[in-house]
Amino acid sequence: MHAVKSEAAILAGTGTDSSLAASLAAAIDPLKQQHGDDHEYNAWRDEHPCILQHFDTFLERVNGKRVAVFLDYDGTLTPIVNNPDNAVLSPQMRDTVRQVAHLFPTAIISGRGRDKVEGFVQLPELFYAGSHGMDIAGPKDDHSNLTPHNFQAAAEFRPMIDQLYHDLCKRLQDIPGASVEHNNFCVSAHFRNCATEHWQQVVVAVNESVAAQQAQLHVTRGRKVLEVRPQVDWDKGRALLHLLEVLGLQQQADVLPIYIGDDKTDEDAFRALQDHTGIGILVSTKAKPTAAAFTVRDPEEVAAFLKMLVQYGTSSGNGWWTHQDACNGWAPAHLRHSSSAPAGLAALADLAPQLLRPVMAPAGQTDVTAAVAAAVLRPAAAAAAAAAAVAGSGGAAAAPAADAAPVAAAAAAD
Ligand SMILES: O=P(O)(O)OC[C@H]1O[C@H](O[C@H]2O[C@H](CO)[C@@H](O)[C@H](O)[C@H]2O)[C@H](O)[C@@H](O)[C@@H]1O
Questions:
Q1: CA–CA gap between residue 184 and residue 119 (Å, rounded)
Q2: Catalytic annotation on 72?
Q3: Domains of the chain as residue ranges with CATH
Q4: C-alpha count within 13 angstroms, C-beta hemisphere, residue 298
Q5: Quick one: which atom of ligand 1 is closest to the CA of 117?
Q6: Ligand 1 centroid, distance to 342 Cα (angstroms)
């Protein structure tokens, strides 16, 4: 505990976010790392139910609404891996996200630099918000030109961030396992690959590096990473609301935004949704405070949920089918078959025509939600079985293999 106390003192001494000290202390505390107390976890899941097992409740809320989908990247669409450069998107997840984006306006909001996350995802039809939402761009047209949705909330900080990156590279170069990542309008200092006794050195180096610019920069903590960000009133929640606005979807009773994320910075988006009647879904294998209503355990369960969402999207319960207005930068699938439709979308329509065919209620059944629930869930028992199958198919228990191996949950609660 002595090391934790001096950690807190260091952070307090530099005026860094005090919650950082507390969360780092929690991460260092081996008791906290054991988090697998079933009673605690189960009680937490009562408060934040698994959306796979409660998909019928979800359907009741979304039926007839125009859903907009917002997704975090690391830890949500891809498993956490040791080398950030290896967090590639699986082809299966790419296909699933593509199908989601065909049915609902879809954005990825990431702490990564936008260019990097776009490179991983490779879906030009999405909206992207990089650098924790400080760098926003709309879908690209056939010639990879950006549609006019670009917005950078902290553009003037770029030279300071460049300088900070170089300074941190120097300061961290002798700490075994530490690495620095330039995320365009913020910088990540990674300590995932450091021995525990070196974590504090990373914290000290980061705090020393920002000490002279405390009025302009602040430090937050993610999963075994310290993220240095400009002091601007902007975060993933603000980015989500901004995107709703440019899409023309803000404050409309028939619009339902969904956000899926796994990390502390995603809580800003969950809180924004609490205020704007959306649905937050936290990806976590452990109980932790969250403003998200629902949970899933890992990216495999995220994929399972997104597939169920696609099923719902093909039903006539999807509010976009009856909404003829194409919103800015995104058009409902049934309006996308003009010659101006992006090639990728047209190809998808060719490949998966069934995607465009609404699921209709069986004869005599007028409750579309029930029909979709029946089609998608094949009641709750099937959903539970699917969830169990997903949980048993790898996830946290997958065998580690070099850098691309998911970090075992017990060893890396973060
Ligand atoms: O908002 P996100 O898309 O979740 O980005 C947050 C950070 O994600 C990445 O780091 C995390 O994932 C890495 C790859 O799995 C892992 O090695 C690292 O320990 C995690 O913290 C990214 O590398 C960071 O720059 C982002 O800030």
A1: 14
A2: yes
A3: 15-153+234-313 (3.40.50.1000), 156-230 (3.30.70.1020), 337-413 (no CATH)
A4: 23
A5: 3
A6: 30
Ligand 1 within 6 A of CB of 111: yes
For residue 86, give the ligand 1 atom closest to its CA: 14
- CA-CA distance, 317 to 405, in Å (whole number)? 39
Q: Closest Cα to atom 27, ligand 1: which residue?
A: 111
pLDDT of 142: 60
- Residue 73 near ligand 1, beta carbon < 6 Å: yes
**Residue 279: strand pairing partners:** 258
Q: Report pLDDT for 148.
A: 60
Amino acid at 68: A
CA of 370 to the centre of ligand 1 (A): 39
Pocket test for ligand 1, best of 74, 80, 298 (most atoms within 8 A of CB): 74
Profile the chain (414 residues) by mean pLDDT over runs of 10 residues.
36 39 43 57 95 96 96 98 98 98 96 98 95 93 62 94 98 98 98 97 97 93 97 97 92 95 97 90 96 97 98 94 78 65 35 34 39 42 40 32 29 52
CA–centroid distance, residue 62 to ligand 1 (Å): 30
DSSP 332-389: -GGG--STTS-HHHHHHHHH-GGGGSPBPPPTT---HHHHHIIIIISHHHHHHHHHHH
Q: Which two tokens stand for residue 285?
A: 């294998």
Ligand 1 center to residue 138 CA distance, Å?
22
Q: How would you list the strands of the sheet with 294-296, edge to edge?
A: 151-152, 135-137, 127-130, 106-109, 66-71, 255-261, 279-283, 294-296
Q: Is the ipTM of this complex over 0.95?
A: yes
Q: Which of 72, 135, 262, 263 is catalytic?
A: 72
